[in-house]
Sequence to fold (485 residues):
Amino acid sequence: MKRFIPFICILFLPLAGTAHVNSPDVFFDGYAGPYHLLVTLRPPAVVPGVAQVQIRSVGSDVSEIKILPLRMIGVGAKMAPLPDPAKRSADDPQLFTGSLWIMVRGSWKVQIQATGQKGVAQLDVPLPAVSTSSQPMHAGLGILLAFLGLALAAGLIGIIFAATRDAALNAGERPAPAQKRRGRVGLAIAAAIVLAAFILGNQWWGSEASANDRLNYRLPNMTPSLTPGSLLRLHLDNPNEAEPTRFRTEQPDRIRLDDLIPDHGHLMHLFIVRMPDMKAFWHLHPDQTQPGDFAVNLPIMPEGQYKLYADIVHHTGFPETQVATVNLPAVTGEALTGDDSGSFDLAPADRVAQLSGGYRMVWQRDERPFKANQPYWFRFRVEDKDGKPATDLEPYMGMAAHAVFLSTDGNVFAHVHPAGSVSMAAVNLAEGRSTMAGMESMDHPSPSAEISFPYGFPKPGDYRIFVQIKRAGKIETGEFVAKAE
Ligand SMILES: [Cu+2]
Fold:
């Protein structure tokens, strides 16, 4: 079965993942030197497995692209094998595709080497890879194999029975009572052997399957608790094993929780959304009280049911989202300060979200419906009350904007930036920069009024998009309604 796993994973589409919730694909908008690329990485559903790579060159100046998978940190990050060429599409010369074997779970990056008129340049894109599911056996295949197995067992028993009873007989001769007895003993022994083979075989299969199951990534469910007042405590969950260091150890190591690195300046980004109306949304930054425990003062919040999504990044660049659902009473709370933002009276818009001071955020989409599993640029424009592009946008946590894509059932969550769906801490690691470097290097001195996010919906359904920008010293959130087919 193990050997089948890489093969089987190509047949089924992955529908679970890390970093985000049930949105495993990586979307990245970046530059390899002078070449502007839109990169989509589809990690395998089971590791070892094959990751699918799709790279679109925005300009027509790229003639060749090579791709290479590397571990994010450690010796594996430096010992590069030869890169594979990506295949250029015959119909669309700006589109390059390829596939890469990912051999171990954990934090990877895909090194992209683009060659064109302006020479050779490189871009590193983070790729977290985990096994997310054990593929069940197809019912038809199960029935076929059971039938063939029974035929083999019956054949084996029949051969041993006939051999013990009839082997010494001449043609046409009938077995004597002693030979019949020998035959019955042979039959009993053959049946016992076959039965034992079935039982032991089933145990072996079961232990292989459960060893494989143990390696599947489980979504961490943190435990929130509201202390008297407005302090929300979060106890992180750690259901997963660490990246393998040795081959199947007896006592598997857990993922560490004392190794978190800041992502755009904070160890945790906590998103709180009221369900099911999704008209209340906050983006807060809890402080670590001890490894595995965080706390944050809640703002003024109406009572209701809330979904919590907490983004953290490990020292390997491996991102996780811890989730929780909690019923909260009305919280008197504290005023939002610093990078904390949000609102409890958002009005989900189809196209135009109202901001304060008569400003608007306009989603520049066309009429075409969105298809699931396809990369898009989601473009938004911030306008003043006269419809002119806003000129006073400021970076919010070092970036032009932040977006959250959330399905209306709360099962799909992705935190995306103009550079894409990967954490900025992982981007810095992939490019060999310090993890703190993001604050300056990602800094847009004065973001333009036009913002775009590369993203693709992982499955059909209804979604909301929360877009956050900062202008005139104030962080504002626009909420939009989207649907994927
Ligand atoms: Cu963000």
